[in-house]
Write a structure and sequence with these properties.
Blueprint: H1 48-58, E1 61-67, E2 79-85, E3 87-88, E4 94-97, H2 103-110, E5 113-119, E6 129-139, H3 145-155, E7 170-183, E8 188-191, H4 193-198, H5 212-223, E9 234-242, E10 246-253, E11 258-264, H6 272-285
Antiparallel strand pairs: 1-2, 1-5, 3-4, 4-7, 5-6, 6-7, 7-8, 9-10, 10-11
Length: 294
């Protein structure tokens, strides 16, 4: 279980439409004339800060983007991305266990400015939710190294971490300057870092309550073969994200195309049992009806 403690390394700084029909196509995330439509408020999604916190809890890895240091004469001064595993403290501060020999570790000793790109696990592509955190990577103070290591190990078992990763010095992305969130094609938002750090993830995504990836795997094992019955011309489905308001489902059409749809729950779900109840209700009674706006 994740500790509720924080490293305290902080930043400086529905109603829906009046249609009253069955919601047969909750959220189709597809390109719209080469641009992006902000559809989030129509579909009872979590707020952008909560969506960011949910994603940070669910994802195991991210791309750490640093500036190549002069000691690496090849492409010095150029941006470079490295895949890293990470955990978070109770405020959403990313924590890394970094090898002193790694290129990104050498880079941040010269220029600690960094961006961290995190995607929803298990589904890559422009319809996938992702966020970018902008901040400064610094070594965790010696008196907080043990706390940071507990948080890191609570998220990363020996099976999914790189060899020896958990024993390297711990670093944190501090002084978060900005957060850029893209919820697939449907939602794009710059999130105030104070809003990000002060928000809490949904309970179904919070590792202090339960493992969100285990919950997702269990829901898929139970329902992924039944989800296609909800849609015409759907040959395959996979639940790629769950939050208290609903779930995102990747569908494969009869023509072989993939789309991501939003299925809204009838009520908030805060545990695996409540998620199961919501999915069972949708499978038996259909999608949630849209209420008239006042």
């Amino acid at each position: 279980m994740k500790s509720v403690e924080s490293l305290t390394m902080k930043t400086e700084n529905h109603e829906t439409s009046d249609t009253n029909v069955l919601f047969s196509s909750p959220l189709l995330r597809t390109p719209l004339s080469g641009s992006v439509a902000n559809a989030g408020r129509h579909y009872e999604l979590p707020t952008p800060p909560v969506s960011c916190r949910n994603l940070m809890e669910q994802a195991l890895f991210g791309d750490m983007c640093t500036t190549m240091a002069p000691m690496d004469h090849r492409r010095a001064g150029w941006p470079v991305a490295s895949l890293v595993d990470f955990a978070t403290d109770s405020e959403g501060t990313p924590i890394f266990s970094l090898s002193p020999m790694a290129m990104h570790t050498r880079n941040i000793k010269v220029d600690p400015r960094c961006s961290l790109v995190v995607e929803m696990p298990g589904w890559r592509g422009l319809a996938s939710a992702r966020l970018t955190l902008f901040g400064t990577v610094r070594k965790v103070p010696d008196d907080k190294q043990d706390l940071a290591r507990r948080l890191f190990k609570s998220k990363h078992s020996e099976e999914n971490m790189s060899y020896g990763t958990s024993e390297f010095p711990l670093y944190a992305l501090t002084d978060i300057k900005d957060v850029y969130y893209v919820g697939g094609y449907g939602q794009v938002k710059w999130v105030d870092p104070i809003d990000y750090l002060s928000s809490a993830p949904d309970k179904v995504c919070d590792r202090a309550v339960q493992d969100p990836l285990e919950l997702l795997n269990n829901v898929n094992a139970e329902y992924r073969l039944r989800i296609p019955s909800l849609y015409p011309d759907c040959s395959r489905a996979k639940i790629i994200a769950v939050d208290r308001c609903g779930m995102d489902v990747r569908l494969k059409t009869g023509e072989g195309h993939y789309v991501v749809q939003r299925i809204r729950f009838h009520g908030p779900a805060e545990s695996y049992g409540e998620v199961r109840d919501e999915v069972e209700a949708i499978l038996s009674d259909g999608f949630k009806k849209l209420r008239k706006s006042r």
